[in-house]
Amino acid sequence: MSDLITISAPLERTVVSPSMLKLRVMESKDRVAALAIWRDLEQRVASPPLAASEAWTRIWLDHYGETVRYWFLVAEDAGVVRGICLYTESTERKAPFLTLHTRHLGTAGDPVHESACVEYNSLLAEPAWQSAFLETVSHWLLTQAAGDVIQLDGFSAAEMSELTAHWPAVEVRERDSKYLDLEAVRNSGKDLIDHLGRSTRANLRRKLREYGAIETEWATSLTAAEGLFAELVELHQARWNAIGERGAFASLRFLKFQRALLTELFPQGRCVVFRALHQGDTIGVLLLLVDRNRLLDYLSGLAAFDHKPSPGLVTHYLCQCEAIQRGFTAYDFLVGDKRHKDNLSTHTQILTWTRLARPTLKSRIVAALTHLKRRVRPLPNNSGTLTSNAAATQTAEIEPT
Q: Cα 311 vs. chain centroid, distance in angstroms?
């Protein structure tokens, strides 16, 4: 268990940005009141982003709140709350006597080896006040003296652009989040397989012939979902352990967080659990988050390749076929490079991880050391800047290649 992080300078309690929204900072000790404000605002937002929802934030704080120090930023207009977000601080050891203090927005800054890996990060605001809220938060971040780095993790390129429009030079890493446009497939009247690439179509047809009859299960009760999730965890760990890796669920904190998410989100229709079964043996189990009617491929447990051929390709394809029938608009694979993501996607959205180093002595030392390291061992042209938990772990659903 990590100690709570101390901050090097007091936070400014109130600031008025050019947008004229008033930003109020609520401490972690006021968490109950802040989350009540969050729930009230969410009820006024038609389609809140899942990562900016009160439920996701509360459950994340239940499990990761002790690993970071956090506050709530509340934006008001004439006493009416128009926007809210979480603000956290993490530490990053760069040398034996050099630790950077990094500030984040949203549920970020959790330990890399057990991170929830937030993607499609966002700030909650009434639609008419979204731009004003982003401007207010952006301005406020630049006025703060505390911290060595500001890091914005897993935001869409559009939202990141608004947040950093007036910032000085920043390091940005862009990553592709590949997805299948389910609505386009549904409206076309054609089968999903006809929308895929030529080699993928041939490979899928061959694999499906080899398998023969495959049973699929879309969990319809929490009890069923919990049973399938337990199998997902077992399969995930078995595949990682087989190649000498610990697997995501080796972290008890991560496992408890995922169980809590399932317990709360499943009854609300905000997550899905799916299984493909062949001759009594599981090919794969998937847990997908539901974010504004988009399915996000968050966790997976797949059979060994030598036991079931192409388990990822087959399981995701069958899940996509079911998702088309159930009216979802997109099937998003999130970031990370896997062949089945390329084969089963039709579009790409850019997610970004952005890092702004404050002009502190520690930041300057780290910058100098990084520059020296790059001169000695140049980075490849496409490496980008590794700035986020998600970038480091390539999402929680990763599987051995």
A: 23
